[in-house]
Amino acid sequence: MSVVLAVDVGGTGLKGAVVDVHGRALVRRERPTALDGRGALDNLLALLAELAELAGPHRPVAVGVGTPGTVDEASGTVVHASNLGWRDLGLRALLEEATGLPVAVGHDARAAGRAEQLASGARDSFVFVPIGTGISAALVVRGTAVSGVSGAAGEFGHVVVHPDGEPCPCGQRGCVEAYAAAGAVLRRYRARGGRAGSTAEVVARVGRDADADADADAVWADAVGALALGLQGVTMLLDPAEIVLGGGVSRAGAVLLDPLAADLRSLLAWRSPPPLRTARWGAQAGRVGAALLGFERVGTTPRFELPHVPGTAGAGTG
Amino acid sequence: MSVVLAVDVGGTGLKGAVVDVHGRALVRRERPTALDGRGALDNLLALLAELAELAGPHRPVAVGVGTPGTVDEASGTVVHASNLGWRDLGLRALLEEATGLPVAVGHDARAAGRAEQLASGARDSFVFVPIGTGISAALVVRGTAVSGVSGAAGEFGHVVVHPDGEPCPCGQRGCVEAYAAAGAVLRRYRARGGRAGSTAEVVARVGRDADADADADAVWADAVGALALGLQGVTMLLDPAEIVLGGGVSRAGAVLLDPLAADLRSLLAWRSPPPLRTARWGAQAGRVGAALLGFERVGTTPRFELPHVPGTAGAGTG
């Protein structure tokens, strides 16, 4: 069976997998992204070498890589990815040289959005928002994610929602990401004196009747509020059939979805909000999206199967 | 030569014309929109009857009508247009009955955006923002304006840019329209004690060294600031090749464009703003867009000619 080597390049970690045409990860490996552009590239090369070896009898037919930032998908160039320190990096040529395989480089959120689309029955018009170290979006219009004139569309995380608000690492003020990205939640919780080792720990303290943690509640309310404001704009502009949340922060589930739906509703006076749900691929959406890029690079249309909803019976999605 | 009857239905006035396939208005007539839905419909019917008579020897082949709000273009139904008091109005059927001609009903901004596109050389990706009684947008992606799952896309005027800001007539708070629509500028100027009979009078008092009018300056700065915040989001989400401003307020020209470009630039830390310009069709874009709908209804592709830029030599656009 043909497989591809797939890597979802995140701001914190590189998530790799050997993925088959059904979207199943036969093996998974992760590495930290590293703190500078050269280190991130070295780690990516090492991860791909490791995955190639682990593929064993399955001979990989291609490599698919999803990266954040501004990506020129036609040439496989990362034009600008601030979280990675990459600028005008001809990633596809570099990786083809190193692996000897055909390589596709695409935008992480757009690729993940398309994987979600394949898995959930190809909606014509929806918005996929992965919330992790960074926040972006695949804005699917008439079946295809908008890439924009320079490949820079979908930067939902850098829509300004509080004009004089929090400084964002990107240099702007009041971006959605400055409140709602995983790192922002943790940083803002600590700035209020809270102690936590991870964003998940903060989220676990939100909205409890007993053991109330006012700092966790306040920081989370700001995160949800910023997302709601950004999504109000997306709703007004694009009128999507649904909004799908992915990425690590979406694992919060109802703790995220319920207040977000309420906030979004309160910002809309004369139309109902689009339905809101978490991604069917869950935190694997990025990896599956990268795999999709790889398969398409060699003219293969994968037959992705709808993964099982967490908590239901049946084999996992690998 | 074949002509159509075209009407651009605005929140304040009905702008009608008999338009030929070159986009020239052979005759123009306007009527007020009226204060209620029934009155607006009666005025529209009367205006169409008047235009049909004025067409004289040119026999109209169709009627094209552009309306604001949520429009189902396939059925010619105005689902919801708050400025007009229309809800679930089967306008196409009504007008075909009354005129005996084939009728097309479309969204005003999307139709005007397409007319602009035809006139300025069909950009694949741009945003057209008519600023008048209301504010909306044609978001052109891959050559076609986004209509959304329910025909409600492009409501740029109701993107919330100041979460606890000015009440908007739509029932929300802090919408772009609550600061930057023609009526909002005039209302907010008067609320500060300024006296003016029209928005154009207020705009004429902006940014003068002598005769400085601090109220006009402040109100205009708020309008420009709200537009800039909304366009920051549009830029981040869609990465358009250019932003084109139309509608009555765009007649302000450099008084609008210069501070808007500066504000937009100051909200973008790591990318340049898309080029900003006023519409080539100017305030006629809505009428020409409605004419385009009419011609397309009967399978005719009009050969719109680029209108002459005001102030340059040559015949007007009629």
UniProtKB/TrEMBL annotation, chains A, B:
<comment type="similarity">
    <text>Belongs to the ROK (NagC/XylR) family.</text>
</comment>
<dbReference type="InterPro" id="IPR000600">
    <property type="entry name" value="ROK"/>
</dbReference>
<dbReference type="Pfam" id="PF00480">
    <property type="entry name" value="ROK"/>
</dbReference>
<protein>
    <submittedName>
        <fullName>ROK family protein</fullName>
    </submittedName>
</protein>
<dbReference type="InterPro" id="IPR043129">
    <property type="entry name" value="ATPase_NBD"/>
</dbReference>
